[in-house]
Amino acid sequence: MLRPLFAALLFVPLAFASASAMEKHRLALQISDNDPVKMNAVLNVAANVSKYYADKGDEVEIQIVAFNAGLNMLRQDKSPVLDRLKSFKQGMPNVAFMACENTLDAMTRTEGKEPPLVENSTRVPAGVVTLIELGEKGWTIVRP
User: Is 57 left (phi over 0), alpha (psi -120 to 50) or beta?
Assistant: First the structure.
């Protein structure tokens, strides 16, 4: 009677080990400065975290939230990291780019026309609100 119970208990750690090997991680990265060094830092963090978890066999979802002057990162007409954004679109489908509509509206008023955004960006009503809501859902929020 104890043998089947003992044998079953031996498999419990194996079940948990295989479940943890397929963990899903969620990271939100903030960019709010018009600084190519910081923009590249955000992209480096996204690439490094993505590679780390891929090597472990885990999933990671990453959202880069751009607002205030950081929205320049996602502008098709003047992003200093445009080539890297294109390579992310092709090679890292787990990384999403969020563009703050509040900032976009302010830029539109200042410039007289809406700035063009890179095609792999998604508009969100407010960048900070997006970060708050992601945090409330258990996402890790980092500002490199």
Answer: left
